[in-house]
């Protein structure tokens, strides 16, 4: 441990001495010093290895948080730099300030009657107002002005805390809570096992980790080898500042996860500040774990599951349209911004969310133009804002990334007209989110209660005999879209529907009514080629085709 610390100290001195060196030296320097995380093109094993390596490097407990000092140091350096470099640095500081302001705005915004407005204490609020920029605002001074008197949870999430000095970082968060739920902290992730790389985007890398035998979580942190860091370091030659700039995205995401509470928004379980890669106070968000959305895979699943995803999405957008923070739009709406948790769609990437409704002037029609690759829309301007632009942008994106692919195909034929109407109306932006939700809930009602079944007066060709408390172990055949890869497992509303399915499959000679149900409450049924492997199974019923 001591050795690791000495190496870390040595490395820090060298990095400081190198003084935010020019970018073309940086790659070589990183290689020489082997700062893990700055290597590129890692495969997943390397990433997991790196995760453990970084964890070992973290200095625990005794080092003081010097982020405020580092920012001052960076500012001093920027003054001593040639003017082009100095303006570069100011540019970086300004970007930090913008992100800082945004996070503060989300924290300050009063919840509409949700009772979470007291999360920002009056003293904190006054302090934040004191630090409002004047015309000659200097980000360094504002950051330095923020004191460290409070230890409130919300302060820890704020950039002001992030940027300020002293020793709070290794406090375990277990005694704190988010909306009444105890939070996880550094000690919770100190001994994680089964770390697996899940994915990364422009800024962040995400790992799956098992906290104990019962809870797996996602650990989200700035990707030191990611595009965001790489581009910033190339431009500004300041890994520490670039890290801080990027980490505001995690702070924003954590703030939004905490302020926006909905079943289709991933839960924030906690967070941890640690030293890593010679950068002090890096932040790791601990969140609910999902599985990345694979569109190709989704196209192969049952309509019922695909409909669930669309309904989850619409319920989410309905909430976002009138959230406690106002109308929230997801600027980056690609499917990769969502994950699945037990079949339910949840948004994970909130760093591109925005609550700003575009400002406009009624005399300039282009102010409220919404441009998409295949369609443009123009919205009305009302009281200086484009009316419902956030809601409409979300809805059109839901149409183009989700509904067109997932809603109509292989849907029950009687539901097709309504589904087509939903697809067309959202594609034309004729409906708002309220009407869209209403119509999707109607589809759910029709489906769940079997009203979609056609009044088939035709008698089945064969009789089916039931055998109670039995199942058929083998005699599987494949069908589409089965819930099981090597058998034909489908959901049905009734025995009558199961008989119709069996009659429509040439191989089907029997089926097993299991005691499992899907999310809509429909029964799962195994369709079989015969009954040779009939065996007893409590609660299940075999239906055997008798002839015909
Ligand atoms: N909680 C989670 N569970 C499982 N996978 C996740 C989770 N959060 C994120 N991921 C995966 O990690 C990837 C990167 O995460 P995230 O989108 O937050 O990073 P990013 O840098 O903001 O990406 P982008 O460039 O898309 O903005 C996601 O595309 C997703 O597939």
TrEMBL record:
<keyword id="KW-0964">Secreted</keyword>
<dbReference type="GO" id="GO:0005794">
    <property type="term" value="C:Golgi apparatus"/>
</dbReference>
<keyword id="KW-1133">Transmembrane helix</keyword>
<keyword id="KW-0221">Differentiation</keyword>
<keyword id="KW-0597">Phosphoprotein</keyword>
<dbReference type="GO" id="GO:0001503">
    <property type="term" value="P:ossification"/>
</dbReference>
<feature type="domain" description="Protein kinase">
    <location>
        <begin position="192"/>
        <end position="473"/>
    </location>
</feature>
<dbReference type="InterPro" id="IPR042983">
    <property type="entry name" value="PKDCC"/>
</dbReference>
<keyword id="KW-0333">Golgi apparatus</keyword>
<dbReference type="GO" id="GO:0005576">
    <property type="term" value="C:extracellular region"/>
</dbReference>
<keyword id="KW-0547">Nucleotide-binding</keyword>
<keyword id="KW-0812">Transmembrane</keyword>
<dbReference type="GO" id="GO:0005524">
    <property type="term" value="F:ATP binding"/>
</dbReference>
<feature type="transmembrane region" description="Helical">
    <location>
        <begin position="14"/>
        <end position="35"/>
    </location>
</feature>
<keyword id="KW-0325">Glycoprotein</keyword>
<dbReference type="GO" id="GO:0004715">
    <property type="term" value="F:non-membrane spanning protein tyrosine kinase activity"/>
</dbReference>
<keyword id="KW-0829">Tyrosine-protein kinase</keyword>
<dbReference type="GO" id="GO:0015031">
    <property type="term" value="P:protein transport"/>
</dbReference>
<keyword id="KW-0813">Transport</keyword>
<keyword id="KW-0892">Osteogenesis</keyword>
<keyword id="KW-0217">Developmental protein</keyword>
<keyword id="KW-0808">Transferase</keyword>
<dbReference type="Pfam" id="PF12260">
    <property type="entry name" value="PIP49_C"/>
</dbReference>
<dbReference type="GO" id="GO:0030154">
    <property type="term" value="P:cell differentiation"/>
</dbReference>
<keyword id="KW-0418">Kinase</keyword>
<keyword id="KW-0653">Protein transport</keyword>
<keyword id="KW-0067">ATP-binding</keyword>
<protein>
    <recommendedName>
        <fullName>Extracellular tyrosine-protein kinase PKDCC</fullName>
        <ecNumber>2.7.10.2</ecNumber>
    </recommendedName>
</protein>
<dbReference type="GO" id="GO:0001501">
    <property type="term" value="P:skeletal system development"/>
</dbReference>
<dbReference type="InterPro" id="IPR011009">
    <property type="entry name" value="Kinase-like_dom_sf"/>
</dbReference>
<dbReference type="InterPro" id="IPR022049">
    <property type="entry name" value="FAM69_kinase_dom"/>
</dbReference>
<keyword id="KW-0732">Signal</keyword>
<keyword id="KW-0472">Membrane</keyword>
<dbReference type="InterPro" id="IPR000719">
    <property type="entry name" value="Prot_kinase_dom"/>
</dbReference>
């Amino acid at each position: 441990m001591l050795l690791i610390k000495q190496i870390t100290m040595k490395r820090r001195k060298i990095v400081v001495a190198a003084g935010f060196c020019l970018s073309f030296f940086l790659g070589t320097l990183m290689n020489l010093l082997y700062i893990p995380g700055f290597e590129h093109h890692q495969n997943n094993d390397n990433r997991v290895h790196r995760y453990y390596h970084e964890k070992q490097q973290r200095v625990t407990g005794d080092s003081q948080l010097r982020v405020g000092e580092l920012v001052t140091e960076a500012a001093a350096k920027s003054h001593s730099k040639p003017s082009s470099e100095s303006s570069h640095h100011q540019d970086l500081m300004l970007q930090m300030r913008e992100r800082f302001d945004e996070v503060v705005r989300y924290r300050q915004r009063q919840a509409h009657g949700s009772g979470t407005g007291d999360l920002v204490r009056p003293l904190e609020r006054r302090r934040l107002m004191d630090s409002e920029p004047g015309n000659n605002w200097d980000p360094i001074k504002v950051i330095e002005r923020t004191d460290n008197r409070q230890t409130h949870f919300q302060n820890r999430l704020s950039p002001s805390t992030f940027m300020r000095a002293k020793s709070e970082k290794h406090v375990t968060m277990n005694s704190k809570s988010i909306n009444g739920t105890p939070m996880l902290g550094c000690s919770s992730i100190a001994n994680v096992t089964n770390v697996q790389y899940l994915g990364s985007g422009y800024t962040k890398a995400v790992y799956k980790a098992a906290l104990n035998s019962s809870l797996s979580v996602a650990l989200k942190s700035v990707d030191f080898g990611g595009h965001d860091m790489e581009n910033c370091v190339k431009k500004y030659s300041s890994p520490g500042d670039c890290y801080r700039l990027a980490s505001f995205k995690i702070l924003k995401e954590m703030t939004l996860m905490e302020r926006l509470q909905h079943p289709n928004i991933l839960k924030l379980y906690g967070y941890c500040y640690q030293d890593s890669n010679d950068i002090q106070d890096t932040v790791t968000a601990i969140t609910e774990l999902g599985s990345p959305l694979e569109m190709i895979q989704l196209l192969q699943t049952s309509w019922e599951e695909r409909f669930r995803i669309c309904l989850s999405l619409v319920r989410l957008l309905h909430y976002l349209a009138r959230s406690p923070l106002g109308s929230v739009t997801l600027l980056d709406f690609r499917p990769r911004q969502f994950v699945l948790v037990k079949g339910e769609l949840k948004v994970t990437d909130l760093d591109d969310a925005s609550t700003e409704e575009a400002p406009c002037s009624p005399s300039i029609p282009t102010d409220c133009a919404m441009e998409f690759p295949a369609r443009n829309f123009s919205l009305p301007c009302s009281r200086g804002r484009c009316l419902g632009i956030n809601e409409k942008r979300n809805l059109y994106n839901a149409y183009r990334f989700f509904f067109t692919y997932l809603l109509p195909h292989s849907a029950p034929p009687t539901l097709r007209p309504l589904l087509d109407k939903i697809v067309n109306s959202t594609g034309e932006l004729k409906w708002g989110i309220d009407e869209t939700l209403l119509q999707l809930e109607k589809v759910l009602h029709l489906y769940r209660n079997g009203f979609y079944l056609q009044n088939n007066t035709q008698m089945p060709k064969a009789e089916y005999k039931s055998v109670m408390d039995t199942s058929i172990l083998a005699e599987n055949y494949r069908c589409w879209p089965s819930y099981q890869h090597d058998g034909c497992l489908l959901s049905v509303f009734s025995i009558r529907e199961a008989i119709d399915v069996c009659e429509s499959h040439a191989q089907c000679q029997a089926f097993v009514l299991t005691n499992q149900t899907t999310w809509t409450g429909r029964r799962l049924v195994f369709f079989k080629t015969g009954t040779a492997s009939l065996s007893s199974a409590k609660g299940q019923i075999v239906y055997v085709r008798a002839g015909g």
